[in-house]
Amino acid sequence: MTRIWGAVLSAAMLSSALAPSIAAAQQSEEGDDGLIRVQQGDDFYCRERNLGQWFYCEKPKPDPEIAAKAQSSIPAAVRLKAISEKLEELKARAILEPTTQNVQAYISYQREQLDRASDFADVWRRAIWQNPELDYTLQRPINALGKKTWTTQRTAQRDAALAAISQRYGVFYFYSSGCAACEVFSPIIRGVSDRFGMTVMAVSIDGGPNAAFPNYLIDTGQFQAMGMAGKQVPALVLFDTVTKQPMPIGYGVMAADDVMDRIFTLTHTEPGSDF
Question: Which residue has the higher pLDDT, 228 or 70?
Answer without folding.
Answer: 228
